[in-house]
Amino acid sequence: MDIDAWVWWLIGAVGLGIPLVLTAMPEFGMLSAGAIAGAVTAALGPGVVAQVVVFAVVSVALIAVVRPIAARHRDGRPQYVTNVDALRGRQAVVLERVDGNGGRIKLAGEVWSARALDADQSFEPGQQVDVVEIDGATAVVM
Q1: Contact, 59 vs 31, CB < 8 A?
Q2: Packing angle between helix 26-44 and helix 48-75, nearest 10 degrees?
Q3: Which of 8, 13, 6, 18 is nearest to 34 (CA)?
Q4: How many CB atoms lie within 10 A of CB 127?
Q5: Candidate from 50-59, 83-92, 110-119 with smallest mean pLDDT
Q6: What is the pTM of this model?
């Protein structure tokens, strides 16, 4: 049984596609696309040297062009802060006197337990304070 060269290239393309799926490394997809280009070249008739050259050129070109674009998109995504990380740096209003021992503030529409960052400092109701950190269910303010 004599199998044409383009079939071997397609088998190689599938073989390179399997690690792409298993490892999510896009480089394997680019090599697989190069193997498909090699299969097309083999179907058109040129020799093995031309097929390998086309495979190499297409694979390297895809890696050289697509990887930097993908990296730029990956790094350019905005980083969203959520949960208690989103509350740091926000302002709150004191509801009950806040000192080193405790108190109450209104933060992001909710009532929170709070304590002053500096134990000697105190804040009276109505004052604006800045949230420095969240310690458990207590906002540390200054």
Answers
A1: yes
A2: 150
A3: 13
A4: 14
A5: 83-92
A6: 0.53
